[in-house]
Design brief:
alpha/beta; Rossmann fold; two-stranded antiparallel sheet; 7 strands; globular; binds adenosine-5'-triphosphate; binds magnesium ion
């Protein structure tokens, strides 16, 4: 299936509205097309409420979902066996950078960064011997600077993901009650 029609189909299925997404819709469609053709994932950047999470879920409905703002989710990342064979599938890391570094026996850990590195290593294995392992895409949403993970992690992300920055408004709005 053509990547653009696949994009439209997935968006429709997830009840996304093109008029609400505005110019972000075209940005996303382009990024998705490039990512699909390059066999890469996505890094979706953008402000609060712009639609990052829903976009990620809509486009990668089969992916494991990890909320980096959830301590339990981030802790679970450290033990990949918890995910069974699905650990090799697509992974959404939502709100990357919103988590505090973890603490294991007094030693600082960065489970999210470690997970990114693990996926990169598997991707390299696959590149040199495609029969060894299959590894899905990494889909990241964030609205913070990820440089705290260090240059090596951001460099690897550049090879694994296509970046797209959403520029729309916060889609969450207060309801105005009618005057009683
Ligand atoms: N194009 C759209 N059509 C319909 N609903 C949308 C659209 N974009 C966003 N929404 C809705 O707006 C709300 C905010 O979207 P979402 O949670 O994806 O934002 P976010 O960028 O992940 O925000 P945060 O930075 O707080 O995590 C959700 O209820 C989502 O369903
Ligand atoms: Mg979100």
């Amino acid at each position: 299936m053509e990547s653009r029609s696949r994009f439209d189909m997935l968006m429709k299925r997830s009840a996304w509205k093109e008029e609400i997404a505005g110019s972000d819709y075209g940005l996303l469609a382009n990024a998705y097309e490039v990512a699909l053709n390059a066999d890469k994932g996505l890094i979706i950047k953008g402000g609060v409420g712009v639609g990052k999470t829903h976009f990620a879920r809509a486009l990668y409905p089969e992916a494991i979902f990890t909320d980096c703002a959830s301590r339990d989710d981030v802790a679970r990342l450290a033990s990949m066996s918890n995910f069974g064979d699905r650990r090799y599938g697509d992974m959404i890391l939502d709100d990357v950078g919103s988590e505090e570094p973890q603490n294991e026996y007094g030693i600082k850990r960065e489970n999210v960064a470690e997970h990114i590195m693990w996926r990169y290593l598997l991707m390299m294995k696959k590149k040199f011997n495609p029969n060894i392992v299959t590894i899905g895409k990494l889909i990241i949403t964030t609205n913070t600077d990820l440089s705290r993970y260090g240059e090596r992690v951001t460099s690897r992300l550049a090879e694994m993901c296509i970046p797209v920055e959403l520029t729309g408004k916060d889609k969450r709005t207060w309801t105005t009650l009618p005057k009683g």
